[in-house]
């Protein structure tokens, strides 16, 4: 077997482990699923799973990385799509909100998994925040260049935009604030942010 074939086989096995782990986490929950459960469903030993991932937390982190990378890719598609910079910033804000609600709240078991990632401050979460901030900064820079937004440091403004909208995109804050009737909705908050960005 060539080195390339070995690498492909390892990648395929790793992907199978992640797919099965994600299925079990979504069905039973992160805390109730063991590495032995994942191995049994795949017809392999727990020791074999540990050859690819040193712990259950490492599996969860890899799943979180896949999920968050897909969200960043979706953000990049919106950022490079049609519309004015203001329309795209609004679309980015709302897409992030609705993805949080759909993925992390409608699927309670996934929310548990994400909570672990947030509380343990995994690198994948920090990278996700950094990458989404960069996407926002790209669109905000366009708006500044065209005069649609006030001049400034686009990265700094992107960070402030994220901070203003955090109760609509942070999974735990979204859960806590859902029943708060005094809270501005995501559309209202997005419009407020856009007004603040204007010259």
From TrEMBL:
Superkingdom, natural source: Bacteria
Binding region for DNA: 34-53
Alphabetical list of InterPro entries matching this protein: Homeodomain-like_sf (IPR009057), HTH-type_TetR-like_transc_reg (IPR050109), HTH_TetR (IPR001647), Tet_transcr_reg_TetR-rel_C_sf (IPR036271), TetR_C_27 (IPR041478)
Signal peptide: none
Domain HTH tetR-type: start-end pairs: 11-71
Keywords: DNA-binding, Transcription, Transcription regulation
Key word DNA-binding present: yes
Keyword Glycosyltransferase: no
Molecular function (Gene Ontology), one example: transcription cis-regulatory region binding
Protein name: HTH tetR-type domain-containing protein
Organism: Prosthecodimorpha hirschii
Lineage start: Bacteria, Pseudomonadati, Pseudomonadota, Alphaproteobacteria, Hyphomicrobiales
């Amino acid at each position: 077997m060539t080195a390339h074939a070995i690498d492909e086989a390892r990648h395929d096995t790793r992907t199978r482990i992640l797919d099965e782990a994600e299925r079990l986490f979504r069905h039973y929950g992160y805390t109730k699923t063991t590495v032995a459960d994942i191995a049994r469903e795949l017809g392999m030993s727990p020791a074999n799973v540990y050859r690819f991932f040193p712990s259950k937390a490492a599996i969860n982190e890899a799943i979180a990385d896949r999920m968050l990378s897909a969200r960043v890719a979706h953000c990049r598609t919106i950022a490079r799509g049609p519309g004015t910079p203001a329309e795209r910033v609004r679309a980015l804000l709302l897409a992030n909100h609705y993805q949080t609600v759909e993925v992390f709240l409608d699927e309670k078991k996934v929310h548990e998994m994400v909570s672990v990632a947030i509380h343990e401050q995994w690198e994948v979460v920090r990278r996700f925040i950094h990458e989404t901030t960069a996407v926002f900064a790209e669109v905000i820079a366009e708006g500044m260049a065209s005069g649609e937004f006030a001049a400034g440091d686009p990265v700094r403004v992107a960070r402030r935009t994220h901070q203003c909208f955090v109760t609509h995109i942070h999974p735990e804050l979204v859960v806590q604030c859902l029943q708060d009737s005094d809270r501005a909705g995501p559309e209202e908050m997005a419009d407020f942010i856009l007004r603040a960005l204007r010259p």
